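for the recovery benchmark. tokens below, seq after
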């Protein structure tokens, strides 16, 4: 059985940290907490978990802090989490089983990272990350902001999920770090350019976001999944700016990088539905539900676009075309994902009344 060090960097997490540690403590052999400048009771909340607590002078560099935390570990493998992450009960059980059975030749274990949920508990946004790595390999974190763990060797894709329970307390933090870097005229890597644009979009600075997304795409040096995502985000910016032609231009530009994804098929379906062209809209929503998910499981996925959303929109399309039986079938498929959705339930009653008249 392998042994595990949990390594975390924290600041002002007195509420979230105990929840995180309680969800994972029974699966790890060592807990290392690196505090980067808390002014609340974060440190004291970690003490009941017998954590090894250290401090690190914050230098506006997340990788530096994470690498320091990793350097303090002394178990065979290192698990990393943020304070607003948790392992649900079933995932904790899976981690304990993995700990007992993992081949020690494995260099890194990936886990799902569930980022956002709808009101019915469905995961609507997720990706995969390297979460558990062999300490002896001395893998390093890269990047001042939106850092990533650079790994190599034998990778095991587990079915364990980490659940993000974050809030918006630090919503300005990363933008400020990038703006500092920008004001000092320090060079931006392609990754920096992309994530800076993301921060600008999140803060509704649409025109400046477009500038940096286009700069990122024009460089031609980005990861293909970031290129595809950037097209969608530029389309979002142009939608907010009221420029539908440019929105369509960047929706279609995503096809330059890979075959159509469900998210972009749904964009096109909505575009034509707004133009009162349900037949063309129908085509694109059908593509969204029929296509296989992308092979690259590292990219963020909007799961709604391959589950309930296109079925709900197909219901609308078929209803407008007078094909009420098909509209009802797709509404029922949407209802499997969102059984209490008021719009879906209203559709059900409406379509049942029509079908009853037609068959009566």
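predicted aa per position
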């Amino acid at each position: 059985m392998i042994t595990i060090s949990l390594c975390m960097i924290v600041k002002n997490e007195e509420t979230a940290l105990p929840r995180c540690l309680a969800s994972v403590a029974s699966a790890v052999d060592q807990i290392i907490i690196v505090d980067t400048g808390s002014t609340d009771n974060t440190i004291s909340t970690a003490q009941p978990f017998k954590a090894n607590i250290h401090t690190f002078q914050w230098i506006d560099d997340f990788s530096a802090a994470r690498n320091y935390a990793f350097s303090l570990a002394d178990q065979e493998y290192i698990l990393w989490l943020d304070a607003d992450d948790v392992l649900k009960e079933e995932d904790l059980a899976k981690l304990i089983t993995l700990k007992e059975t993992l081949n020690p030749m494995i260099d890194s274990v990936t886990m799902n990272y569930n980022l956002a949920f709808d009101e019915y508990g469905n995961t609507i946004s997720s990706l995969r990350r390297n979460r558990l790595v062999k300490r002896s390999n001395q893998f390093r974190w890269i990047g001042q902001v939106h850092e990533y763990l650079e790994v190599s060797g034998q990778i095991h894709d587990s079915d364990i999920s980490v659940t993000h329970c974050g809030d918006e307390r630090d919503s300005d933090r990363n933008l400020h770090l990038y703006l500092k870097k920008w004001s000092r005229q320090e060079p931006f890597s392609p990754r920096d350019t992309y994530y800076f644009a993301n921060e600008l979009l999140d803060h509704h600075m649409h025109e400046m976001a477009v500038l940096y997304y286009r700069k990122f795409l024009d460089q031609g040096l980005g990861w293909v999944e970031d290129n595809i995502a950037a097209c969608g985000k530029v389309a979002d910016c142009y939608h907010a700016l009221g420029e539908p032609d440019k929105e369509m231009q960047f929706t279609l530009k995503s096809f330059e990088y890979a075959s159509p994804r469900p998210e972009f098929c749904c964009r096109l379906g909505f575009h034509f539905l707004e133009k009162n062209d349900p037949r063309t809209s129908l085509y694109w929503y059908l593509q969204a539900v029929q296509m296989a998910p992308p092979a690259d499981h590292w990219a963020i996925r909007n799961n709604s676009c391959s589950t309930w959303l296109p079925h709900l929109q197909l219901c609308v399309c078929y209803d407008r075309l007078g094909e009420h039986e098909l509209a009802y079938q797709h509404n029922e498929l949407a209802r499997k994902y969102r059984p209490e959705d008021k719009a879906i339930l209203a559709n059900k009653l409406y379509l049942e009344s029509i079908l009853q008249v037609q068959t009566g």
